[in-house]
């Protein structure tokens, strides 16, 4: 693709993250206890543990996932123009991931690995209360590095969105820093989702340094933002993030969300007119809705409402990607409202 085309802001958002195929299965608390799993957390596992746990799980559903991949797919479903950067192997699951994300309307051009670790997979156990416990084998994800960052794609994106999970491998950190520098040099915005409070616990100081030095739009849930600032009080954490980023989107489950700037706070109610089935992907689709709205000229409050609606759709079924066309879903929801 020519530089002339690529630099005309082709993309609303380019998302960077771990390219993962999800395996989703029902489980009860007794199973989690027997397998010594921390409920509602994401735990990194090796291939041996992945095979052992997979063998013990009930029949599941396989579908492409990965936090930033889900967000990219959500933006495309809403009618936005999104791209994705993530690493898979040239194996069966890598082929599934590539097909699925392209079929969702997302531009995905990252070169596949031809040797080394297999494509990543996340074993997701959903308990009757709709909480999900994730066990992730990163596999080929850890090979994504700065060489996979397409400068033209990043420069052509209004927002470059990164998932905190990718901070685990050193190559991922270098990729983030390169992408952030390119984005800012092109006059664009950088966005980060903290992903998981356990992830924040591992890299708190590094995250705070990265955020204060170059993140414009931050996504975090209540536990993550409190962990970032080592406080048990949400309001204290909210005050701490104000002024450090241009926009902070703080989600609070059934309490809704807050869109925070230096001078404004917008309270967005949760969309509770749905049946809660599986919370997998709620934060990813909230980010998709907000970023779609923000990059397509909507104000902050409206963008937050779009995020809440997208999140409501994804938690009404199993799986972390939309089960319906979100553009049509949004049109219906707004007509009712």
SSE topology:
Blueprint: H1 3-6, E1 11-16, E2 20-26, H2 29-34, E3 42-44, H3 47-56, E4 61-65, H4 67-77, E5 82-85, H5 92-103, E6 107-108, E7 120-126, E8 132-137, H6 151-155, E9 157-163, H7 170-185, E10 189-193, H8 197-214, E11 217-221, H9 222-228, H10 234-241, E12 247-251, E13 257-260, E14 265-268, H11 282-295, H12 300-314, H13 326-336
Parallel strand pairs: 1-5, 1-9, 2-7, 3-8, 5-6, 9-10, 10-11, 11-12
Antiparallel strand pairs: 2-4, 7-8, 12-13, 13-14
Care to describe what's here?
The chain has helices at about 5, 30-35, 45-55, 65-75, 90-105, 150-155, 170-185, 195-215, 220-230, 235-240, 280-295, 300-315, 325-335, and strands at about 10-15, 20-25, 40-45, 60-65, 80-85, 105-110, 120-125, 130-135, 155-165, 190-195, 215-220, 245-250, 255-260, 265-270. Helix 4 crosses helix 11, helix 8 crosses helix 9 (about 220-230) and helix 9 (about 220-230) crosses helix 10. It contains 13 helices and 14 strands. With about 325 residues, the protein is of the alpha/beta class. Helices cover about 40% and strands about 20% of the residues. Strands 6-5-1-9-10-11-12-13-14 form a nine-stranded mixed sheet. Strands 3-8-7-2-4 form a five-stranded mixed sheet. The protein is globular. It has a single domain (about 5-335), classed as 3-Layer(aba) Sandwich (UDP-N-acetylmuramoyl-L-alanine:D-glutamate ligase), CATH 3.40.1190.
């Amino acid at each position: 693709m020519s530089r002339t085309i690529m630099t005309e802001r082709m993309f609303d958002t380019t998302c960077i993250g771990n390219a993962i195929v999800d395996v989703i299965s029902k489980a009860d608390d007794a199973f989690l206890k027997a397998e010594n799993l921390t409920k509602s957390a994401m735990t990194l596992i090796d291939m041996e543990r992945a095979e052992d746990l997979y063998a013990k799980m009930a029949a599941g559903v396989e579908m492409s996932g990965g936090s930033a991949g889900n967000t990219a797919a959500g933006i495309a479903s809403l009618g936005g123009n999104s791209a994705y950067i993530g690493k898979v192997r040239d194996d069966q699951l890598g082929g599934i991931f590539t097909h699925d994300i392209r079929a969702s309307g997302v531009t995905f051009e990252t070169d596949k690995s031809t040797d080394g670790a297999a494509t990543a997979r996340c074993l997701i156990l959903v308990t009757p209360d709709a909480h999900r416990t994730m066990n992730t084998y990163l596999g080929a994800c850890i090979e994504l590095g700065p060489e996979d960052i397409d400068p033209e794609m990043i420069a052509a994106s209004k927002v470059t969105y990164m998932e905190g999970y990718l901070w685990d491998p050193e190559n991922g950190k270098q990729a983030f820093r390169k992408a952030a520098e390119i984005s800012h040099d092109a006059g664009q915005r950088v966005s980060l989702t903290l992903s998981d409070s356990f992830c924040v616990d591992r890299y708190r100081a590094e995250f705070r340094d990265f955020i204060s030095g170059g993140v414009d739009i931050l996504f975090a849930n209540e536990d993550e933002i409190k962990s970032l600032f080592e406080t048990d009080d949400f309001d204290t954490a909210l005050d701490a993030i104000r002024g450090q980023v241009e926009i902070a989107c703080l989600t609070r489950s059934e309490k809704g969300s807050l869109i925070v700037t230096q001078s404004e706070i917008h309270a967005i109610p949760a969309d509770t007119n749905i049946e809660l089935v599986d919370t997998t992907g709620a934060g990813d689709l909230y980010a998709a809705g907000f970023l779609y709205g923000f990059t397509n000229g909507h104000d902050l409050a409206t963008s937050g409402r779009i995020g809440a609606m997208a999140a409501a759709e994804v938690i009404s079924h199993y799986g972390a990607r939309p089960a319906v066309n979100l553009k049509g879903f949004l049109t219906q929801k707004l007509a009712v409202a």
